């Protein structure tokens, strides 16, 4: 029995399959469903859990080399929200691209974790180092 860390077996399975430069999506509650990739849906109610909470839990045992987000995240969210995300990322390289281009990358990921987050465009693609 696990004593700490990620307890969700489906998320553990996803994480164990990520290798060098593979990618994983953490998505908000409104992100489209992709039947072609494995999705672990941990949404419960609005904002439980949040994207950043899942990110924090994952990064303890996952070496994140880059983070990719949609440009729209910066346009529709206030400065405090943007700053909070950037602060959580620390020194990890962060880049932005149009949401339509972001979504095209999803099919190449190992999988997707859907949260209950209601922050618009809070979706991120994590690339392993």
Walkthrough of the structure:
The chain is an alpha/beta fold. Helix content is 32%, strand content 23%. The protein contains five helices and six strands, in the order αββαβααβαββ. The protein has helices at 9-17, 51-59, 72-76, 79-89, 99-105; strands at 23-27, 38-41, 64-70, 93-97, 111-114, 124-128. The protein has a six-stranded mixed sheet with strand order 2-5-1-6-3-4. The longest helix has 11 residues, at 79-89. It is globular, with a radius of gyration of 14 Å. The N and C termini lie far apart (29 Å). The relative contact order is 0.34.
Number of strands: 6
The first-to-last residue Cα distance is: 29 Å
Share of residues in helices: 25-40%
Mean pLDDT: 95
Helices and strands, in order, run as HEEHEHHEHEE
Walk across the major sheet and give the strand order. 2-5-1-6-3-4
The secondary-structure class comes to alpha/beta
| Uncertain runs | none
Query: How many DSSP H or I helices?
Result: 5
């Amino acid at each position: 029995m696990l004593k700490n860390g990620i307890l969700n077996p489906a998320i553990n399975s996803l994480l164990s399959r990520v290798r060098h430069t593979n990618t994983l999506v953490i998505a908000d509650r409104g992100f489209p469903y992709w039947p072609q990739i494995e999705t672990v849906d941990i949404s419960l109610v609005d904002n439980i859990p949040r994207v950043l909470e899942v990110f924090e839990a994952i990064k303890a045992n996952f070496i994140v080399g880059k983070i990719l987000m949609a440009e729209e995240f910066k346009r529709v969210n206030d400065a405090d929200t943007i700053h909070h995300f950037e602060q959580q990322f620390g020194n990890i390289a962060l880049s932005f691209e149009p949401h339509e281009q972001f979504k095209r990358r999803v099919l190449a990921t190992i999988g997707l974790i859907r949260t209950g987050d209601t922050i618009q465009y809070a979706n991120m693609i994590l690339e392993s180092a």
